[in-house]
Amino acid sequence: MVRNTRILGLWLLASLAQAACVLAPVHAAEVRGTVTLDYQGMFPANTSAQAQPVSVALLPAQGQHVVARPPRLHRIEMIGNRMSPAFFTIKKGDSIQFVNRDDVYHEIFFLSPGKPWSVRLNRAGSRHASSPGLVMDKPGTTHFFCRIHSKSYARVDVVDTPYLETVRSGQPFHFSGLAGGRWILRLAAPAAETRRVKVSAITSPPPLALHLVSHGGGQGNGQLNAQTGVEALYRD
After folding, report:
1. Domain end: 160, 188, 211, which one?
2. 103 — phi, psi (to 5°)?
């Protein structure tokens, strides 16, 4: 009788454990690795090619649960008649504010077939030296320019995921606490073709070794600026 009771107890424990595994979502999966920029421009590459920021975004491919976070405000500063940072990726619903640190005026704009936008920034320290927050509520790529300074430029990518990291070429990225299954890695960098890679989130995965082709970062005329055809270089 005692033996039968013990067997029954073990069976119940095993059944409960199995049910818990089925009912409880698993969020212990990971995706990790490195992204290396491979320069294939017309001009010799210098150290700036490897110093370019690489945006890594992870998007669910099977409807997995994505952790929610409140919208964030990101700032682009006007310094030396240039926009800084000139490239970054944000989550859908985040906002961008332009702040003038120069002692000259700037007029920032972007082109859009739906709703063009522009803002005039007064000199640093004066009233209206910063813009109201611009809500970026649609995934895609937006190119910002200055009507006064032709080499002033910034690219902002908007993605519908909170899993974002910005690394340098060859530096590791790591997303943890994920639901298992198939995901999509979106890789982007200045003057590089945006790449999407199908990956699997699992427990303790081996690191991925990914590559991204860059056409910018060379010397002389190979340097990237707003006058070298940014629409052709920044394809999404």
Report:
1. 160
2. -95, 30
Spatial neighbors of 162 by CB under 8 A, at least 6 apart, are: 66, 67, 68, 69, 91
**Burial call 74-109: b when 16+ CB within 10 Å, e when fewer:** bebbbeeebbeebbbbbbbbbbbebebebeebbebe
107 and 129 in a single domain? The answer is yes
Q: Which helix (H) or strand (E) holds 58?
A: strand 53-60
Question: Can you say how many angstroms the Cα of residue 204 is from the centroid of all Cα atoms in its chain?
Answer: 23
Q: Which neighbouring-strand residues pair with 95? A: 73, 135
Length of the chain: 236
DSSP string, 186-216: EEE-TTB--EEEEEEEBSSPPPEEEEEEE--
Of 38, 64, 26, residue with least CA distance to 184: 64
Q: Give the tens place of pLDDT for each residue, 51-84.
A: 789 999 999 999 998 989 999 999 999 999 999 9
The overall pTM is greater than 0.85? no
